[in-house]
Amino acid sequence: MGRSDSIHNLTPWLSTTWIPGSRTAEQQATFLALLHASIQESAPLGPMIRALSREYPGRYQYKLIQVAALIDQGVDWVDAIEQTPGTLPPDSVLALRLGQQSGITNSTLEQLRSENTAELIDQEPQEWRSYLIYWLAVSLMIMSILSLISYFIIPTFLKMMDEFELQRGRRNLALYVSYVKTPVVIALGLLCAGILLNWSQGIRSWLASLFGIPSTSRTEKYSSLLGILANVIQHGRPISGALSTLAKYHSDGKLRDKLLMARNEIEQGTEPLDSLRSVGLLSEPQTQALKGQSNEDQAWILRSISKGIDSKQRYRWQWFQSIIHPLITFAFGLAVLGLSASIIDALYSIVTELANDTSWR
After folding, report:
1. Taking the chain, what is the end-to-end CA distance rounded to the nearest angstrom?
2. Would you tell me which of 71, 177, 287, 293 could form a disulfide with 297, CB atoms 3.0–4.6 Å apart?
3. What is the pTM of this model?
4. What is the signed CA dihedral for 200, 204, 209, 210, rounded to 10 degrees?
5. In this predicted model, which residue has the larger pLDDT, 229 or 172?
């Protein structure tokens, strides 16, 4: 019996690590799966979430413990998650809020899990991360070379130029120090900051809240909104009630206004799809494609539109990466060109002076 108890006590040590080994998206996917299983089986959420928190040491563990503590205090589980930003993505929290008020919590969780799993499996490699590491290595190498030249080679050149009274060579070396070294130092600082922000979502969230930067773009919010509406339509829930809930809890002010306007038009007798079109949430071709379809087909069309918007966003981001990478290459090439030109010019000045003194020319 004592042996069994000791093994039980060691279980957390066998299943966790002190260093977090998974990305936040994977942690949130696991938490979403736990929510689905617990609610489906009517299991107590507090102990389940607290047990899961042991698997993720660090910032996410603290978030899960906070959610469990709020639930133990009698706070509704959706409210607890909403009061702990970062536990789940904002669009998932909004979908769960609407699912709970519409009576389709289990279906919403199933849909969120399906979408989440597809995103994790089909996730395209982030090329910009490899770019950051590559350019950090290049920057460190260039900085090492610049340090060697600045603290050893240039002082020697300057002494030689003082002896030969070569003012032009001194000016060129001064130009190198001013216009070559400074941009490389700035680039190195930006790369280090980029890697730090990529590594820590906590720092990204803190900076976003500090400067008032939205965590997701309006296009991404619009895409997720269509996906949420698709789930409501699929299960035959009234759109007007869904729009009221979304308008109350959505984080984007302009989208809230559009949702309220659409809800008001529906209450005045306008068809739901026409009201969504009139406020700009649907285009005319999209509205025509949705009309006359069953709930299942309308839900499928809305999800297809949402995926199309996401694909366009990813294409734009990949295009930006394909442009910025050559620009950085060009910038570093200019720095190397300036360094080479300054050194070669200094050597040419010294050799020319020596040639004149020894009558080689």
Report:
1. 99
2. 293
3. 0.68
4. 100
5. 229
